[in-house]
Amino acid sequence: ALSMRLCAPATNDEIGRLTLSFNQMVEQLETAFKRQKQFVSDASHELRTPLTVLRGSLEMLLIGVDRGDIETSRRLARSMSSEVLRMQRLVEDLLALTRLDEGRRAAREDIVNVRTIIDKVYDQAQQLARGQDIRSDVAANIFSVRADPDRLQQILLNIVENAVKYTATDGCVKLVACNGVDNTVVIEVRDNGKGIPAEALPHVFDRFYRVDSARSRIAPQRIGGSGLGLAIAKELIEAQGGTITIDSIFGQGTTVTIRLHAVTNDVEVTPQSL
Ligand code: ADP
After folding, report:
1. Do 259 and 121 contact (CB within 8 A), yes or no?
2. Torsion angle of the four alpha carbons 153, 154, 158, 160, in this order, in degrees rounded to the nearest 10
3. pLDDT tens readout for residues 100-114
4. Fewest CB within a 10 Å sphere: which of 21, 39, 184, 260?
5. Alpha helices in the chain (DSSP H)
């Protein structure tokens, strides 16, 4: 039904213009429709993999229980539990994306103290680290930003989680925040981990994209990740008027950079000053 197009002679008159904008609309609809179909197919595939793993484990668990093999049963139950957790995270991510697609960008817009957020993420990063050196460096005169504080913290945590995940245990992950040009605040998460191959870099913000997807699928509980983290981060940051970019050198490390509008003191109206 969406493959219709109007044909009109290439004229400058009103009918010509209407035809053109109608055809453009149809094209946009087609693109959205294709995207939606791809999303459903990718999401189903992502859910099928952990379900297959769970089914296999459950069958083995039943055999183990029948044989009275407590140790094996316990090990299987544990791995099933982590697989269920992974599925739960995936479903949460899928719901987050669906809400974004629906345009329900009900982002709370508060004036957010960047240092407070970085400090919280730093503490969480310490918990995540498996030996990596976690550092943070926030400029003394850092401006605030207009953003949703919970979402910003969640996004930064996801990025830090990646940095820790893809960095050797003797590596380093650093959170850096400073004021940028044109009234922006720049937040960076730098790591000196495995890095991303140049040919993969343009795709890391795509939904479901994982650089090493074969390995991620074989050992999902170890590598984790659905390939949705950066896609969600990008949509959320852009919904708050910001940008997110990634730089990486394969074998040397990765830097994710977020830029948000700064709230400079002269526009900030505090209740005391009224
Ligand atoms: P995932 O849930 O798999 O982590 P993301 O969308 O967060 O998905 O990231 C997409 C892919 O980008 C990851 O699978 C990983 O291959 C790569 N990646 C992201 N961050 C880093 C990093 N700091 N170092 C190396 N590779 C990374």
Report:
1. no
2. 20
3. 766 655 566 789 999
4. 21
5. 14-67, 70-101, 114-128, 149-165, 213-218, 220-223, 229-239
Whole-number Å distance, alpha carbon 203 to ligand 1 midpoint, is 10
What is the pTM (predicted TM-score) of this model? 0.75
**Residue 147: helix, strand or coil by DSSP?**
strand
Is the distance from CB of 188 to CB of 255 less than 8 angstroms?
yes
Beta bridge partners of 134: 173
Q: How far apart are CA 145 and CA 58, in angstroms?
A: 48
ipTM over 0.95 threshold = yes
Tokens standing for 172?
């380093």
The tokens of 10 are what?
């290439």
Please report the DSSP string for 151-213 in residue order.
HHHHHHHHHHHHHHHTS-TT-EEEEEEEEETTTEEEEEEEE-SS---TTTGGGTTSTT--TTH
> Residue 109 C-alpha to ligand 1 middle, in angstroms?
28
User: What is the DSSP secondary structure assignment for residue 110, as one 8-state letter?
Assistant: E
Please list every protein residue whose CB sits less than 6 Å from any atom of ligand 1: 162-163, 166, 191, 193-196, 204, 209-212, 225-231, 254
